[in-house]
Design brief:
By secondary structure, the protein is of the alpha+beta class. The protein is 36% helix and 18% strand.
Length: 747
């Protein structure tokens, strides 16, 4: 009877082990990590003549956490020699090919790249650095940087084995001596103080078991470890361990694996870490929270040095290496040098754009690579502009409690690519003031009112005279609307370009009434300006509510000779096999007549030169365009500014829409002025579309000879005849087809 009972028990145990082994093997074979999608900035491309200075390149290398060295740079390092940089490039697999890791010399002259050569002094045509990682999306909050054993330095593996499991390559998953040593220590301590776990047991615990300290759990852990060791190679087990081991916590994100920890604590790939840095990571295994180097640097330093000492004792590194490394300070960045959130505003734009094509599960688990148009130089300038603006508002008493908010973005005009986004006064995630904050746009509407008028009558041009005097409109309910100019003054008559350049309210109303208010409002609606079913007349002075993103879409078309290109942040998406899944192809459509758009563009240039945006135009030497906007009681301040390539839009105000006395030229202009300070700027284009020619006009808007004193060059409809030689004005204003302009606009 006893024999049968024992036999039955053995069979049951055997079957249980068979089941456990099959279950473990199946789970381990299918082991994968939710590494999530990585979002990248645009890569830095350098070639002879590229518009990047030494300072700009160093800035981007620092963003990528390249290390400055005094000697020959290795991978991930650079060294400066006068006006040249020696750079150990890391390399990157781009969708269109591999950029190899190599040593490159970049020489600079006059603020641009003068020459590119390799280590043998052979000229190089073009190089691309690995793009900056903006964020890594993860639905499980496990921030993973998956690595192979071949990615790890040889000394790292030796130190890890020496400190955590000296007999790893010899035992069968568990260490009998380790268990006995731990048992003795637990007896002496009178409690469960030490576990005696091997690397295999640690991996089993992390993957399949709870963290409770009980004999039952330890027994099951030992069984699993033996089965795992029997079924898989040591290399396979070690490879899983280095990617699974828990090494820290950041909010609700768990830091798993040495590859992730290297980026989290040092901002560098693990194969670029020094011996002292490698030892710190190994030391964290014992207790990531208690040994957190940012919270408890003294504990972390002591543990790191113990790891170095143990590694030297076991022969993993030399005593000299350990001694030198132990004298090295921790040098941990105060904030995590990782991918968790330096660009929340931009990343939110990317995520919303992607939701049309991918599910949340795909984005967080498929290992996609998302290449975007974010330009670190533009983002850098936008941050400086924000800082200057907020400091100034506080200094002049307009924001004593530091509550003013900002929403700003910069767009590449020809392509519609979004190069930078700021969603608030700081970089905390939350309400997105570029995408979601819809506020009255104020005088930003005036260029579209003028464009609608020009489309309605081709005779209008920059010099057309418009009345600037009191005007009143009575609506169907008998209410009277009588807008005033911001300065509470009037000039009687002004040139059309000054309606935009100096943002003149009364002249804008007279222009709209002259063209027919309903037709102007209908055209504004066609442009994408919200009008509403009741068509309030105040729409022509900017009571429509729009987000900065929506404003940027309209101005992109206006400043692109009337061609509207959808804004986009994503360039292409690549799967983990390197296959391109989608690319946002270029598309463009006409939404405004070119001759209207270009004439308004030139009027905005006057605004940047002598109008309300002159602080923007005078800061730089290029020919720029601008428009300011301010709403009633200074609740909202707006600014739109553009050079030959980039368009910036900024809104400044308060979330509670309080009366604030803000002015676009004071509160919003500096944000965009700062945005373009670190990039090569260019003039607005002087090319005219069909139907326009350049002519000269005097201050009264009359077409005159180029030789006349004070004559200004402006685009004119080709219907106008050039002035006779020597004609400098006088008489009545000439129009190509009669006196209608004189009768209405007050010529």
């Amino acid at each position: 009877m006893f024999f049968k009972l024992c036999l039955t028990l053995l069979v049951a145990v055997g079957l249980s082990l068979v089941y456990l082994n099959a279950h473990l093997s199946r789970q381990f074979e299918s082991l994968s990590w939710a590494i999530g999608a990585k979002i990248y900035a645009r890569p830095l491309e350098l070639f002879q003549g590229a518009p990047f200075s030494l300072d700009q390149v160093r800035f981007e290398l620092d963003l990528l956490n390249y290390q400055v060295v005094s000697g020959r740079p290795e991978r991930g390092q650079y060294q400066q020699s006068d006006q040249a940089l020696w750079i150990g490039m890391r390399g990157h697999l781009f969708p269109d090919g591999l950029e190899p890791d190599r040593l490159i010399r970049v020489a600079f002259q006059n603020g641009q790249v003068a020459a590119l050569t390799d280590q043998s002094s052979t000229p190089v045509d073009i190089i691309r650095f690995e793009p900056l990682v903006l964020a890594q999306l993860s639905g499980t909050h496990a921030d993973r940087e998956i690595i192979d054993l071949s990615d790890l330095p040889a000394d790292f593996i030796k130190m890890l084995i020496a400190v955590e499991d000296r007999a790893f390559f010899d035992h069968a998953g568990i260490s009998i001596t380790g268990i006995m040593r731990a048992a003795m220590n637990n007896v002496l301590a009178g409690r469960f103080a030490q576990g005696g776990s091997t690397l295999t047991q640690q991996l089993v615990k992390n993957l399949y078991l709870t963290r409770e300290r009980t004999l039952t759990r330890k027994a099951l852990e030992a069984v699993y470890a033996i089965l795992m060791d029997a079924g898989f190679s040591k290399e396979r087990i070690l490879g899983a361990y280095v990617n699974e081991v828990f090494l820290g916590q950041w909010g609700n994100r768990a830091i798993h694996g040495f590859g992730t920890a290297a980026q989290f604590y040092f901002g560098r790939p693990i194969n670029e870490l020094s011996i002292s840095q490698q030892a710190l990571l190994i030391g964290l295994i014992k207790g990531p929270s208690a040994l957190n180097p940012r919270r408890f640097p003294a504990r972390a330093l002591e543990r790191r040095n113990l790891v170095l000492s143990l590694a030297a004792t076991q022969g993993a590194i030399t005593a000299t290496m350990a001694e030198v490394a132990a004298k090295t300070p921790l040098s941990i960045p105060r904030q995590p040098a990782d991918r968790i959130g330096r660009f929340p505003g931009y990343v939110s734009v990317v995520r919303r754009e992607l939701t049309n094509d991918y599910t949340s599960q795909q984005l967080t688990a498929a290992g996609l690579k998302i290449y975007t148009a974010l330009d670190p130089q533009v983002h850098r300038g936008l941050l400086e502009g924000r800082k200057d603006t907020l400091r100034r508002l506080k200094d002049i008493g307009m924001d004593p409690s530091s509550e003013a908010q900002i929403g700003a973005l910069v767009v590449d005009i020809p392509t519609g690519e979004i190069q930078a986004v700021l969603a608030g006064r700081d970089d905390t995630a939350g309400f997105h003031r570029v995408l979601d904050a819809k506020r009255q746009i104020g005088s930003l509407v005036k260029p579209f009112v003028v464009a609608a008028a020009i489309e309605g009558d081709s005779r209008l041009h920059a010099g057309t005279l418009v009345r600037d005097e009191v005007v009143s409109i009575r609506d169907g309910q008998g209410n009277v609307w009588s807008p005033k100019n911001y300065e509470k003054t009037e000039q009687g008559v002004v040139r059309l370009e000054n309606v935009i350049a100096n943002s003149i309210n009364q002249a804008t109303v007279h222009l709209a009434l002259g063209m027919g208010l309903d037709s102007i409002l209908d055209r504004l609606s066609d442009y994408g300006i919200p009008v509403g079913s009741t068509k309030p007349p105040a729409t022509i002075l900017g009571v429509s509510e729009m987000s900065p993103y929506q404003v940027a879409t309209r101005y992109q078309g206006l400043l692109n000779q009337g061609y509207l290109t959808p804004l986009k942040s994503v360039r292409t998406v690549v799967d983990d096999s390197g296959h391109e899944l989608s690319r946002r192809y270029f598309e463009s459509s006409r939404f405004m007549m070119a001759r209207a758009a270009v004439q308004v563009d030139h009027m905005m240039r006057v605004g940047a030169k002598i109008g309300t945006g002159r602080a923007f135009g005078q800061r730089y030497g290029q020919l720029l365009a601008s428009k300011t906007g301010t709403t009633d009681d200074g609740r909202d301040a707006w600014f739109v500014g553009a050079d030959g390539r980039r368009l910036g839009v900024a809104w400044v105000g308060f979330d509670d829409n309080r009366k604030a006395g803000l002015v676009g030229s004071v509160a919003a202009l500096p944000v965009i002025a700062g945005a373009i300070q670190f990039v090569q700027r260019s003039d607005r284009s002087k090319t005219l579309p069909e139907g326009l020619m350049y002519g000269w006009m005097n201050r009264s808007g009359q077409i005159v000879d180029q030789s006349c004193e004070g004559a200004e060059k402006r685009p004119l409809p080709i219907e106008y005849r050039p002035a006779q030689a020597g004609f400098c004005g006088g008489g009545s204003l000439e129009s190509p087809s009669g006196s209608w302009l004189d009768n209405w606009f007050g010529g």
